[in-house]
Amino acid sequence: SVDRKKPLYDMGVSRKVTDLLDAMRVQHTTYYHVQPDPTLAVIHEGLKELLSFQPDVIIAIGGGSPMDAAKVMWLLYEHPEVTFEGLSARFMDIRKRVYEVPTLGTKAQLVCIPTSSGTGSEVTPFSVVTDEKTGNKYPLADYALTPTMAIIDSNFVMGMPKGLVAHGGIDALTHALESYVSVLATDYTRGLSREAIGLIFEFLPRSYADGARDAEARERVHNASTVAGMAFANAFLGICHSIAHKLGAAFHIPHGLANAALITHVIAYNATDVPFKQAIFPQYKYPQAKRRYAEVAAHLGLAGATDDESVMKLIGGIEQLKRSVGIPGSLAEIMGPEKKDLYMSRIEDIANQAFDDQCTGANPRYPLIKDLSQILSDAWHGPPTKLW
């Protein structure tokens, strides 16, 4: 079933665009039934409207959900022969996939206008779609899904509520941290990741505390979200997102909040020079995640005497940033202690699903399923106190 709520539309957010289209006498129609975590049902209903209206430009306004849904609608509008099963097929490297997705843009262009600061979906080749029949979240990945144009206008985020500012900001930080240590990171992507991390640490607390009164902070965090999107569009992510996708689907935890609960545990896990198992296709001779995290710590003024000390100071800095934007330090606080038995009973299943996630392959330390289970267990209790 399709959720009929339409808050962005009711608040007049899309009027900023439709009023201009009316002034230019451009014919348009609006599909406003995309709920958080868009489902296949939503996409197929929106596709019916696309096929009826036959647009030559599709404008997606909103957070990650409308943009993700629009990408898949755009694909199916131009190429109805594409199957979701083929599109969601797993593969090791996005550049070498066996399921060919045709080039898009022959019938319509896709313009994305983000109204939240976090997902970076406006510049990425990814789309996360939920199968409402199974409840599974599928991160779809193909460069054909990259929007034609992104409009990054901070006027659209001035009214964001505090919870969305916090969750989106930590989601963007996770994008930047995971892409920085990814096995597919390069000189080109690391500069973007590093810049986004610095902007978020500097401006997210101000954006959270002062809202639209601090227009500069809102704008800089909005920029950081897109910069981090450009980084992970090319370097990809890691197991923090793998677990967050499955944890969020299992317990309906907002994506940014799920990442926030896990990211420091993933850093503690990844920061080793002797991983039990090397990642596939690393772009380097030796494991270097620990050194990369230490570089991030130094960039933020958190350097210690050794790499190990630097990584622990980075973890402390992230936990302090989370506290400053009202995010609890443990899943027990997020979910409520009464859910402990239910949560612990689901850990193994979530870890199995996370191992299979599209994001796992680029993680610098290739995980065992029992490692993912341990990360989930540790995240229930609170921040890490030592590296693995």
Give descriptors for this structure:
388 residues; mainly alpha; 3-stranded parallel sheet; two-stranded antiparallel sheet; 15 helices; 5 strands; globular
Q: What overall geometry do the principal axes of the alpha carbons give?
A: globular
Judged by helices, strands and strand pairing, the structural class is mainly alpha
Q: How many distinct beta strands?
A: 5
Measured by DSSP, the beta-strand proportion falls in 5-15%
Helix share bin: 40-55%
The separation of the N and C termini measures: 44 Å
The helix count comes to: 15
The strands making up the biggest β-sheet line up spatially as 1-2-5
Average residue pLDDT: 92
Biggest β-sheet: count, sense, barrel? Answer: 3 strands, parallel
Note the run of SSEs as H and E.
HHHEHHEEEEHHHHHHHHHH
Could you tell me the radius of gyration in angstroms?
20 Å
List low-confidence stretches.
none
Protein topology:
Layout: H1 7-10, H2 15-23, H3 40-53, E1 57-62, H4 64-78, H5 84-87, E2 109-114, E3 126-130, E4 137-141, E5 149-150, H6 162-181, H7 187-210, H8 215-235, H9 239-251, H10 255-270, H11 289-299, H12 307-324, H13 331-335, H14 340-355, H15 369-381
Parallel strand pairs: 1-2, 2-5
Antiparallel strand pairs: 3-4
What does this structure look like?
There is one protein chain. The strands form two sheets. Strands 1-2-5 form a three-stranded parallel beta sheet, covered by helices on one side. A two-stranded antiparallel sheet has the order 3-4. The protein has 15 helices and five strands. α7 (187-210) packs antiparallel against α8 (215-235), α10 (255-270) packs across α15 and α11 (289-299) packs across α12 (307-324). It has 388 residues and is mainly alpha-helical. The chain starts with 6 loop residues before the first helix and ends in a 7-residue tail after the last helix. The mean pLDDT is 92. A hairpin with a 6-residue loop joins β3 and β4.
